[in-house]
Amino acid sequence: MTRAEICVVACAEAWRGDGAILAGFAGLIPQLGARLAQRTFAPELLVTDGEATLLRNGEPEGWLPYRAVFAMVAAGTRHAMMGASQLDRFGNQNISCVGEWERPRSQLLCVRGAPGNTVNHPVSYWIPRHSPRVFVDRVDMVSGVGHDRNAYEIRRVVTDLAVLDFATPDRSMRLRSVHPGVRVDDVVEATGFPLTIPRDVPRTREPTDAERALIREQLDPAGRREREIR
Questions:
Q1: Tens of pLDDT along 135-157?
Q2: What's the mean pLDDT in 20-41?
Q3: Residue pLDDT, tens place only, 212-223
Q4: pTM here?
Q5: Span 3-228 CATH architecture
Q6: DSSP string of the chain?
Q7: Does 67 score more than 90 pLDDT?
């Protein structure tokens, strides 16, 4: 069992109980998580190849043109797992620029689909490198809105260290679980704002033998997942 496989399972769990909705993802590990969920506990989940082909057990099942995705976004029938260059305690996301707006130090992706995603349907985040540079007290630009700006639902944040959620009275970020081998203090030190820490923080669920076999033998036999985790 590797840290990458733990993260694949943690991403899969984000779609548990969603029903027949479209899983959106940015990054290999969330893609593997969505495909794992579909093949195990969420057979009704809609999964694409990352472009326009709907897959069922890895085989083409249907066609989803790009224009149809906008209808699913507007109807709230998608749960996307996006990335973030910065995230704050309420789930506000920045993928646009780092530094002052008038003269940023780095120009990034612009806002892309983040505003529409975060106001129309559930959103989670995948962060492959948990650090204070990503988890900041205040994002430099709001690309996707957080709970303090009336997001639809920011559900979970999966990182290489932990799983976080927003199950707090003010819907700010909470430590949900730590991955095997990670201490609570490791997560606290890597976060640039105070987290809500439950009295007992469980370990993130490990893959079952069947899940591990699916990941290694069918979903990602080339082991590309290991390159996404430091």
A1: 999 999 999 999 999 999 999 99
A2: 95
A3: 999 999 999 999
A4: 0.95
A5: 3-Layer(aba) Sandwich (3.40)
A6: --HHHHHHHHHHHHTTT--S-EEEESSHHHHHHHHHHHHTT-TT-BEESSSSEEEETTEEEEE--HHHHHHHHHHT-EEEEE--SEE-TT--EE-SEES-TTS-SEE----TTHHHHHHHSEEEEEESS--TTTB-SS-SS-SB--GGGT-SEEEEEEESSEEEE--STT---EEEEE-TT--HHHHHHT-SSPPB--SSPPBPPPPPHHHHHHIIIII-TT-GGGGG--
A7: no
